[in-house]
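TICKET #2291
ISSUE: user wants both folds in one file
ATTACHMENT 1:
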Amino acid sequence: MKSNAAIIGSGIAGIASALRLKAKGYEVDIFEQNDYTGGKLHSITRGKYRFDYGPSLFTMPHLVDELFGLFDIDPKDYFQYKRKETICNYFWEDGKRFQVNADTKTFIKEAAESFDESEKHLEDYLKSTKTKYDLTSKLFLEKSLHKFDTYLSKDTLKAVFNIGKLHLDSSLNEVNEKYFDHPKLIQLFNRFATYNGSTPYKTPGIMSMIPHLEMNYGTFVPKHGMHDISQSLTQLAKNVGISIHLNQKVDEIVYENNTAKALKINGNDQAFDLIVCNMDVYSAYNTLLKKVKAPKKTLSQERSSSALIFYWGINKTFEELDLHNILFTEDYEKEFDHLFNKKHFADDPTVYINISSKEVKEDAQEGHENWFVMVNAPTNCGQDWTAQTTYIREKVIAKINKCLGSKIENYIEVEHVVTPKDIEFATSSFQGSLYGTSSNNKFAAFLRHPNFSSKLKNLYFCGGSVHPGGGIPLCLLSAKIVSDLVPQPQ
């Protein structure tokens, strides 16, 4: 009889873990409490508009493609995407606009001209982001930081000898101020701290490697929208014999002699040789592992930011907007101070607008657009989200109207709102944080929960709340790390 594995949760990391374990020779069952797969990576329909519910940025598509390759299947048979020529459009209230071209040389030339910066400074900065990534990716992103043999490698020694280039003792903002003079260009590069739910005024300068993923690897758009990533992998999982159980809430991870043995579901124990938990790790210890001594230091880390999202069906088209658009606040530092310290919105938020219908035409009727309008939000700490939503909606509309010279409230014909409290309820992510813990600490990578349990044998963890972090690429890498850690099936 083949060894069997259970995956708790069908977020992108859970599905990827299931596929990797299946390819390794395990029989695999996925248990999902919702009636859909994908976790945050699914979609909703309101009226005649389709919206991607959560993640809207797609980078490093090879990490998806290689999951199909595990079964010698051409990914194009399931999943297609194209590279974007424009990465993002940026807007400021004073009328300043800048479009980031996907071609690095073009970007450097246009940014130098637009922000009156030296092309060399831009070249040096982008080289430094690549250096940071090359020095640390195999150590920080592709292996467990909590296994001793990870540090017995040439990659580790190389990173140690070049530790000064990693800017661990400087904040991201300090690194960006070192390279650039123009405050708007500094702000543009500070924004990358939000990719892991952190503040650029605290997160270490090593996070300046994030632009490398976007500007060198590129940004992409799936043919049928972001949810196509999770749905194509779900179909692959079914086709290769993985059993997916929807509306199946796991009540407890059962263990004996410090070894995970089974899942308790509807009062019954189902035995498994190993278990992979894709649930937010904080919530997992408070629900599935109540009898296990929790790692208090790990679970007490500051949570990442959350989001408040307006899904708007707009009965107009805006030619100046593209797939990704940012409308910046006039006071970035104040915005992050409110998010992480005051736990409520500042009066001038940065607004992100994603319009998938720019690329996926069936997401909205002709002459219409589906706007995913997001502001960074504090985590759910008991705030009055009805009042907060009313307050921030007014500020968001004012920002859009000032930057675009429009009256956007006249064109909203469909509206759906998701708050941090809603995110927490739907995804079991503690306080509605998008990326588990923040990276507002130079030791954050080491303080994240490992991809295995130090208390129970045969128990592993994947997803955005554990190593190496949140976002689609890192969640997929967490699945790869888990696959490398688990033993060969019997």
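ATTACHMENT 2:
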Amino acid sequence: MRDMDPRTPCLIGTAQRTVREQPGPEPLDLWEHVAREAAREARLPVGRIDSIQLVYTDSWQYDSPVGRLADRLGAAPRHRAYSRVSGTAPQLLIGEAAGRIAAGELDSALVAGAEALATRRAYRQAGEHVPWSHPADPKPPYGWDRPPHPAELAHELFLPVHTYAIMETARRASLGMSINEEMVDRARMMAPMTEVAAANPHAWRRTARTPEELVTGHRFIGWPYTRDTVAVGEVDQAAAVILVSTGLADRLGVPDDQRVYLRGWAYGEDTWEVAARPALGASRAIARTAEAAFARAGLGLEDIHALDLYSCFAIALRQACDAIKLDPLDRRGLTVTGGLPYAGGPSSDYVLHSTATMAGLLRAQQGHGLVTGVGMHLTKHTYAIWSTDPGGALGDATPVFTADPVEIVALYDGPATVAGYTVAHGRDGVAEKGILVVDLPGGGRAHAHVLEEKLLADAMSRELVGRRVRLVSDGKVNVARW
């Protein structure tokens, strides 16, 4: 065994499960399954788990999520945690577990997540109620850190498929790309991800697609995004990881080459409101977060053997590539799972899947891997460096960067300039309304709707970013015309 501090945390057990038969099991069943599988791989009796940490599940609100799982496992953990909603939640839990192990507070920790949204949909389509156990009564409030800005709510700008699309159009315009060039470029970037998913037995969508198929594929949902290039959320998937101290790994007899170490990680934040972002199409927070993670790991991007960049929408990939100076067509690829649009995007859980997959790859090949997470509307960022070689400095959840917001003006009458936009589409594929973020002459930003059919068609046929428009407020929302 390596000569190191016996409190050094290492990842020694992983599990993933994808259920395609409908209706499938409830989240509690999935938690139990992956917890037992991960513990079995780690050679750790479930009753010896010191900490159980669960990622928030959108599928069902339990009265005591961690308590119910502990009862199922016959465990009595000294530490328990249930996260809030965020794609960064798995890394925050993993980071906390690693920190507590390194401090000698814990010897072992389970971090697990599960969603059964495909099963919920199956019950809904059958006109039946979900027959799951231990419902919370009363139902707790939704688990986000903070609700949308009142101006966002008034303009119905709270769905990620719209907020991310607005940032996408801003980046497209800043680079001088045409509408078609952006779509083709996106398809070229994402087609290799479908090939990775096709080879991943845990992936939800396992069909390789060509760039041409992605360009001409499904209907628009939040223009310019099509259904087959965004995260697929209605999935039944679960994942778990087991972290232990090196001393416990020694006692369990885990071979050195089956241990994966968190060399360093970091957390950073952009503004909470998209309209408040200093630059809609770029992120200083990503660059600073990545820089801190690499510094703590004592490694650079050139040292990384495999990557998994959070891929809920193309702009998340593109801003990450821009920030860390990575070619989107890098030979190492952007994902080890296939990404959220193809492997599956189980609400806040995805980073558990990417971490588990990365751990398996590193065990097989040895080396270093990068796993990133994104929360809310490209607001929160985690960068984690995993390695089969111990070293580095862990880091913690203290933000290494927090962006300064641009002022948001709720209601406004007068001229403005489009900074970013999207056109919301219904399930029938018909354009319903445009949603703009605009720069105001005196500084600050505002939101606006576009309601006229001819203007919606114009917005999708030529670049609207940079165009002068006029906003008229009805006392509740702003409406744009040109």
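RESOLUTION: both attachments delivered.
EXTRA DETAIL ON ATTACHMENT 2: The chain has 13 helices and 17 strands.
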